[in-house]
Amino acid sequence: MSSAVGGGGVGPDGLDRRRVVQVVTTCVAGPGRRGSGYQVTGKLVLTARHVLCDASSVQVRFLTEDGGIREVCGKPVLADSASDIALIGIADDPSAGGLSADEVSPVRFARVTRTVDCEALGFPRFRLRAGTESSDRGELVWYRDSHHARGDTSPLSYMRTGRLEVTLKSAPEYDPERGRSPWEGMSGSPVWSGGCVIGVISEHHRPDGLGTLAAIPVERWFKDLTPARIKELGELVGLPGHADQLERLPRPSPGAPELREAAELLASRLAGQWEKEWRRRKVHDPYPLPVRFRNADTGFDHWASIRDAPPGADPGPLSLTGRLNEIVKVYRSVPSRRLVVLGAAGSGKTILTLRFVRDWLRDRASDDRVPVIFSLGSWDPTTISLRDWMRRQLVRDHGLATLIAPGGNWADTLVDTGWILPVLDGFDEIASGLRHAALKELDRTTTSFLLTSRPGEYAEAVADRPLPKAAIIELDDLTLEDIAPYLPRTSSPGPDRGLHKTVWEPVLDELRAHPRRLGAANAATVLTTPLMVAMARTIYSDARGRDPRELLDTATFATPEALQKHLLAAFTPAAYEPVPADSDSGTDRCRRRRWNPDRAQHWLGYLAAHLDQLGRVRTGVPERDLAWWQLGTTMRRSPRVLVIGFLAVLALGVTTAVGNVPANLIATSHGLGFALVRGLVVGLLHGLVNGLLFGFVYGFVSRGAVEPSHVRIQVFGRTGEWRAKVALRFKLGLMGGVSLALVVLFLDRVVVESLGLGDGLDGGLVGGLLFVPGLGLGAGLVLGLMAWLEVPIDTESGVSSSELLSQDRRNVVFYMLVWGLVFGLGAGFAQGTVDGPAWGSLVGLGFGLEAAFGGGLAYGLSFTTWGQWVALVRIWLPLTGQLPWRLIAFLDDACERNVLRQAGAVYQFRHAQLQDHLTQVFLTGRDGRDRRPVDSAESMPRST
Question: What's 705's DSSP letter?
């Protein structure tokens, strides 16, 4: 249970001291009353009904930060004697020091099934104090201070009267005035537990002692109140429509404190990530679009199953109608905690999931589950279970790879112990042949979730059998009444600085006056989805020089599909429209000016086509997660082999050429010209051999994406299993080294000397005889040593892709050191025994550098994900114009422009329709013919 509520706001369990009030009434006859209450909405205070009995006037007093009071007039709005609860209406006036409507978060209600900790904050009589200052008449000022009552409550006490017994940890030591309870004035204070209201303080039974209070439980309200009153409370304060929709306390065991801390850390990271994404989407600029949802027409399981009703009971349907800002409330009203959200393409499903996660995290209690968005398009339910797939996504996107036990990590444990609330976005993005398997896996799991899908794909998947215990809502289309006040607010003001005569007025007037005209009907059909409204806003409100009246042009846009295609095509250029920089512009604005709109669209098209190809190879549908570290893997194998071979040529060729020049200058008398020419020729020949070798091996082993090496370097603690691997690697290195030595020996002794570039430093016959086995033994020793030091990373326990990439980079540096040390020390020692330590050191340095770059670096570029990232994404693709040099900066900037979004470690296009459109444009421009993706055609939303 939370500690005392302090500071300026919300306590650990949701109790906000700024919303606690003292209720002071004046009665028609007799003395007035004192009570407590809590501000449950911007304009309503919850209290006990008997506090307001016979009241002629009501004053509500809030505590201010400095210890003073803010008093407002109140008026009873609802008072029920059977349940002893009441609502007081107050003025919503933030300018007078009160909270704004956004700061008054919804109150959650719960029922108690076992003993739980609880708390209440009110103004009892025993807190009566005399002020230190006098009034104008010289009298002391009396006031009641607040009291934070903490204790526990059990549903097994007061069973006959249906009350909650609140047993307090501390209480007044004595009764100061017989006949009057010291707890007078505490009535009306809500009782909190787990961030929820579980009751309202109503009585103090003196025979029970000073440490016990009685409260009316929220569950009891459903027995004492009429259905009409329950519905009224639902509309006013968000009370669920049925008792079985109340949260149950205590919740399932949260596990060890370490798990709670891990969940809190994950929740904090997600809150920051999605709050940033919320601002990027301009959801509140100028205000959120009024997206609404309702009960879907088909696809439901039995309501008795959804509502966890006992056998034989038929509780009837739930009303799941609401707006976007009520999605958390609606989800919590579903007892099974399984909710499916259906909506057409662009209807706002992704924004709904974002709103759900954001609002949940804002009001999350410490032991609440953590909502995590998972994009289902990359899930293949035939190869991996939902649990394992979610675990891997958590590792990839949120870095939960720290091992906490053998074979387990934080991701495993959080999923297994129920801390994660899956928000499964895009069921329709799963390949059609896999959807039935996905439903079976969702059926098999016992976890609760929120799932989104397009209606047609979901209806087809559940045609034979509904998803068990899943309630279903469907998003409604936007109407003209929804967009008419919104679009003018997004544009520049009219001449009178108001909403009249904006660029949108002619379009909206046409939609109102002539809704049946073809142009107006087309525009009305397209602008029924938040996606298209947002794109129209970007094109015509945010950018300059575009007139939205062109949306009504039937000669250009004869159908709604043509108009939708126009908005998709115009969106990216508008998002990258150059913005004039102010003289004091910051680096962000300057950076955004550098992206040429045409080049940006080409780069985005390449990324979209990459995802299309990658997804169709894996699952048959376009991939939606842009893993930046794998961007080069969908290039054809032949250009990849050429790039890797060319870099291997440079790695050995440059170091060989550079190393030969000082050797010839020092050890021969041929001069600088000879040294430069020989260095160039030898470097070219050796580099070509190295490039052919690594290119051939890479082409042989690279049938698809090159996976990270999945190994790390460990000196101690290995088992005997390494012996077979070391022997195999040594043999391969020996054979490869001997073969390479024979080719190099032929080139040096035949080709180079035939060109008159022999320098006499090859050691003659003895040198040749030693060079071949020496190079073979050195390569075998290097590969064997690396096999001995490499330990597999337990990727099943989970390591994020960025960590694997960093591990690959460290491995490449280590490989270069090993190659350099083995060959440098070996060659230096052998040469030093003949020609002395000075010459031996020079030869060892030269051989070490050539081996480090020609062997270690070439190996890293060829066979590690980091090497692929550097070779293909950071070098080749920018050189060929497919991607920008500053790729990560470009991706981040695209997120700022709302073209992309970031989801954990990966990027995603703002919407699948935009991705598919860019894919089509890119492929058409590359091949010169229409290449519409198979799944890109979208059915148009209904006309309003």
Answer: P
Query: How many whole angstroms separate alpha carbon 933 and alpha carbon 917?
Result: 9
Q: What is the H or E stretch that residue 341 is in?
A: strand 338-342
Taken in order 662, 666, 671, 675, the sign of the CA dihedral is negative
Measure CA 943 to chain center: 33
Name the one residue in this structure whose structure tokens are 């990590």.
Answer: 409
Q: State the pLDDT at residue 544.
A: 78
Q: Three-state SS for 288? A: coil
Residues in the chain: 944
* Bridge partners, residue 398, by sequence: none
> Judging by beta carbons within 10 Å of its beta carbon (0-12, 13-18, 19+), is residue 177 exposed, middle or buried?
exposed
CB atoms within 10 A of CB 173: 9
**Fold classified for 587-631+883-927:** Arc Repressor Mutant, subunit A (1.10.10)
Q: What is the pLDDT of residues 636-677, one digit of tens each?
A: 778 888 888 888 888 888 888 887 787 777 777 788 888 888
Which residue type, as a one-letter code, is found at position 437?
A: A
Per domain, the residue ranges of the chain are 17-249, 257-475, 480-575, 587-631+883-927, 637-874
- The stretch 697-721 carries a mean pLDDT of 58
Q: If you compute the radius of gyration of the chain from its CA atoms, what whole number of angstroms results?
A: 36
Residues ≥6 apart with Cβ < 8 Å to 443:
467, 468
Tokens of 554: 């039937």
What are the CA-CA distances from residue 675 to residues 350, 658, 748, 899 (Å)?
65, 10, 15, 55
For residue 187, the model assigns a pLDDT of 94
pLDDT in tens, 427-470: 998 888 889 889 988 888 778 999 999 999 999 999 888 999 99
Cis geometry, peptide bond prior to residue 422 (ω within 30 degrees of 0): no
Residues 429 and 908: their CA atoms lie apart, in Å, by: 13
- The two most distant CA atoms of the chain are separated, in Å, by 124
Q: 257-475 has which fold?
A: Rossmann fold (3.40.50)
The predicted-structure confidence for 186-232, as pLDDT tens digits, reads as follows 999 999 998 899 999 999 888 888 899 999 999 999 999 998 899 89
At 421, is the secondary structure helix, strand, or coil? strand
Element (H, E) at 634: none
Selection from 156, 131, 195, 154 nearest residue 2 by Cα:
195
- Mapping DSSP to helix (H, G, I), strand (E, B) and coil, where does residue 120 land? strand
Alpha helices in 246-326, H assignment, sequence order: 257-280, 303-306
Q: Is 97 left (phi over 0), alpha (psi -120 to 50) or beta?
A: left
pLDDT score for 728: 76
Q: If DSSP codes are grouped into helix, strand and coil, which group holds residue 565? A: helix
CB-facing half-sphere around the CA of 157: CA atoms within 13 A: 15
DSSP labels, 460-513? HHTSSSPPTT-EEEEEPPP-HHHHTTHHHHHS---TTSSSTT-TTHHHHHHHHH
pLDDT higher than threshold 60 for residue 591: no
**pLDDT band (50, 70, 90) for residue 714:** low
Mean pLDDT along residues 556-564 = 92
pLDDT tens sequence across 75-94? 999 999 889 999 999 987 76
pLDDT by residue (tens digit) across 719-759? Answer: 555 566 677 778 877 887 788 778 887 887 788 888 888 76
What distance lies between CA 232 and its chain's CA centroid?
Answer: 37
Closest alpha carbon to 511 in 494, 529, 526: 526
As a whole number of angstroms, the distance between CA 373 and CA 615 comes to 20
Residue 844, amino acid:
G
Topology at the third CATH level for domain 17-249 = Thrombin, subunit H (2.40.10)
**Taking the CB of residue 610, how many other CB atoms lie within 10 A of it?**
23
The SS3 call for residue 205 is coil
H/E segment holding residue 59: strand 55-63
Say if CB 714 and CB 791 are below 8 A apart.
yes
Residue 176 is predicted with a pLDDT of: 62
120 in Cβ contact with 93 (< 8 Å): no
